[in-house]
Amino acid sequence: MNLIKNRPIILIEILYLLIPITLVFSIAVSELFLNIIVIFFIIYSLKHKIFYYYKNKFFIFYIFFCIYLILVSLIKNNEVPISVLFFFRFGLFALSTWFLLDNNKKLIRLILISIFITYSIVTLDAAFQYFFGVNSLGVEYNIFEQPRLSGFFEDELILGSYLTRLSPLIFLLLGFFMTKIKINNSLKYIMLVVFLILFSSVIFASGERVAFIYFLISSIFFLILLKSIKKSLFFIIALVLAFLLINSNSESRLIKTTFLQIQGSFINSDTEKFKLKNFDEIPIPHVHHWKTTILMAKENIFFGVGPRMFRTECKNPKYAVPNGCATHPHNIYFQLLGETGIVGFISIFSFFFYILIKIIINFRKNISLTFNNKTTLAFFSLCCLFLHFCPLLPNGNFFNNWLNIITFIPMGIFLYSNHSNSRHD
């Protein structure tokens, strides 16, 4: 049922389609667009008594989690950080995405195309910067001074993170292109290989090891679904060529820094080899941050030290760990354990297991690389969520607005694809 009889919503759809590109150039504009979209959804749904979306189990769980965060902030610190107070808006953004997709069946294709075009622009610019030492905005790059490629993001080294967090959706679009678009097969494969080489090369050149792992996981999901040896072979060859192209340089951060950190974690002597050094001597910063959160959790097992308080409390002598202080502990589970206690930790860890179960359930169904297949949309959007909530990898700040906007786009797509829209209150 088309809920919207007239089309004032088209402006909201346009704002939504602009979010991927605004995430590159201005988080402030991204947040402005998100807030406008959310406010429109609230007003429209209340005016027309559309309460179906609010009754969704995910949203109910999310709202209770947001209330818990606010209460913990008040209990532990007598104040609530702005990012915690308005954290609920991301859940409403997911509902807004679901709502918009319900009312325009063509919008999902437009969203994927918007992401693809943005990713292509970012990729081409970064590739130009890598090979010529400067990008289209005049941002210079020298691998010997800064081995991590940044492209449009300049001093913020998040290029790889941006390109990989939604990469499963890019692979969905590529799969559709490979199987549904009717052009000369040779031309199709040449275009695909060129894009994959450029795309993966930029991710490798960003030097972000987590982004590299994100990309490998996304690639594995995609290869499993291709069900074609020939197509899979082309895909693998493109990735190998890109990896060799970028990492043939001895200054590649992906190889060099990783090797040095692993090497530096073990004692190297004639009498003792392959013996792990004392914890405080391990040259991997994140593990020291994680130890700090464990100390916080031991002292505050139920409620933690308060949301967004790691950066302050890590300076407290009670939690002092050499090199253990930072703005956040670089893993959302350690962060939640230290800042929100066991309740916050179990809540998000349970949600990750829900994602894992839903991936398995959807994988066993009939998945075809089309936009109209809701099982396919659910699977690929769940893959994006799997990357963000994977407990085995370092992550950004749980309360980071930029990361949450990226994360709640596939969250909304999943809600849309996972629920029938035949009933509305």
Explain this structure:
There is one protein chain. The longest helix has 32 residues. This protein is mostly helical. The C terminus is likely disordered. The chain has a two-stranded antiparallel ribbon. It has 17 helices and two strands. The relative contact order is 0.12.
The proportion of residues forming helix, as a percent range, comes to 55-70%
Give the topology string: H per helix, E per strand.
Answer: HHHHHHHHHHHHEEHHHHH
Number of helices: 17
Shape: globular
Oligomer: single chain
- Separation of the first and last Cα atoms: 12 Å
* Alpha carbon gyration radius: 23 Å
Instruction: Supply the helix-strand structural class.
Output: mainly alpha
- The neighbouring-strand order within the major sheet is 1-2
Poorly predicted runs of 5 or more residues? 421-425
- How much β-strand is present in the residues? under 5%
What average pLDDT do the residues reach?
A: 83
The main pleated sheet reads as: 2 strands, antiparallel
Question: What is the tally of beta strands?
Answer: 2
Question: Can you summarize this structure?
Answer:
The protein has 425 residues and is mostly helical. It has 17 helices and 2 strands.
List the helices and strands and how they pair.
Layout: H1 9-25, H2 27-47, H3 57-77, H4 82-85, H5 88-103, H6 107-132, H7 159-165, H8 167-180, H9 185-205, H10 209-226, H11 229-247, H12 253-264, E1 266-268, E2 273-276, H13 285-299, H14 310-313, H15 332-363, H16 374-389, H17 401-418
Antiparallel strand pairs: 1-2
